[in-house]
Batch of 2 targets.
Target 1
Amino acid sequence: MWTDTLLPLVTFAFVTSITPGPNNLMLMASGANFGFQRTIPHMLGVALGFVFMAFLMGIGLSQIFETWPRLRDVLTIFSVAYLLWLAWKIAHAAAPKEGMAAGKPLTFLQAAAFQWVNPKAWSMALTSVTLYAPDDTPLAMFFVAAVFGAVNLPSVSTWCILGREMRRVLTNPNRLRLFNWAMAGILVASLYPALL
C-alpha cells in the first residue's frame, strides 16, 4: 500500500519543488548574491522546515482551519505582507563588494519559519498529506513529509546553483540591481494565486 503511493508522491514532490515559487526565487537570488556555501542554511531551512510543517499539518493542523476558517484569511494576509517585505529586501540587496555580497542570506530558522507564511508551501503540504498518505497515522504523515524532504532539498539546491552561476554575469552593480529587481517582481507576481 505504501509502495503504491511512493512513485506518485515522488513525482508530485519533484514537480512542485522544482517549479518557480517564493522559496526557489529567493534561493536563486541568494545564490547570485551570496554564493552556494553561504546559502546552505537557507536551503536546509526550506527543506527541513517544509518537512516539519507537512508532518504537523498531516497530524491535525488542517483541522484548525476547518474549525476557524477565518484563521486562513489572517494567515494569507500575513503571508502576503511578509512576501512583499522579502521582495523589497531582494530588490534592495547591495551589490557585491570584494567578491562577497553585502548583507546576509536567510538563516536556517528564518527559512524554516518562512514555510509557515509561504502560500505555495501550504498548498504543497495540504495536497501531499491529503492525497499521498497511505493512512491517517502519524507514521504515514512522517512518510509523506520525509519523502517530500528528500526530493525537495536537491530541487531547491538547483535554484541556488542557477543563481550562483548567474553571479558571473552579475558582477556589474547595474546588472545585479536589475536582476534583484526582476527577482523581486517575479516574487510579487507569484502572490497572484494567493490573492485569488
Target 2
Amino acid sequence: MVKVNLFSQILGHISGEEFDRLVAKHQSDKHVKGLKSWTHLVCMLFCHIGGTGSVRDISNGLSSTTGNLSHLGISRVQL
C-alpha cells in the first residue's frame, strides 16, 4: 500500500498536462540549468503551506517529510 500524504494530494489537483502546456507557452524552462518550473512550484507550495522561513528550511523539510521525492515529480532538493 502506498502512503500518500496531504501535500501529495494537494499536488494531485494540479493538472500536469495543463502545467506543461503553460510552461511551453511561456517558455519558462527554456534556458534553465537548475530549478525547473515544476520543482519551483512544489518548493514554493511547500514553503507557503509549511510556513518555512528560508531556503534551507524548504530543502530540509522536503527531504525529510515527503520521503521519496520522485512521487512529487522532482528528482532532488538541494541548496
